[in-house]
Design goal:
mainly beta, four-stranded antiparallel sheet, 116 residues, globular
Length: 116
């Protein structure tokens, strides 16, 4: 099972950018597709997108398509979420996990707050 630590969140103005990082430890990272998820205030956790094992295939929720990009560095056991053109509705706690089915224990997440 993998362990996950997210970082890189913060407060940003609408239209700004942030890059989140996910440090993955434990066995099997290179065997898993990885995803980013978020939980907006008052909502259930939702999938933002995911990236294939090799990194060659990505998929995004319609709400972030064209603005967010997921990448991974298998040599460093890292997954990244580049977020551009941020909107107030992107305010959430962001998590990474295996995808499409989360199998690792959820980390604490990283808070992203977008001001209008």
């Amino acid at each position: 099972q993998v362990q996950l630590v997210e970082s890189g969140g913060g407060l940003v103005q609408g239209g700004g950018s942030l890059t989140l990082s996910c440090t993955v430890s434990g066995r099997g990272f290179r065997s898993y597709a990885m995803g980013w998820f978020r939980q907006r205030p008052g909502n259930e956790r939702e999938k933002v997108g995911y990236i294939s094992v090799s990194g060659g295939v990505t998929h995004y929720a319609d709400s972030v398509k064209g603005r967010f990009a997921i990448s991974r560095d298998n040599a460093k056991n890292m997954v990244y979420l580049q977020m551009n053109s941020l909107k107030p509705e992107d305010t959430a706690v962001y998590y990474c996990n295996t995808a499409p089915v989360p199998s690792g224990s959820w980390g604490q997440g990283t808070q992203v707050t977008v001001s209008s």
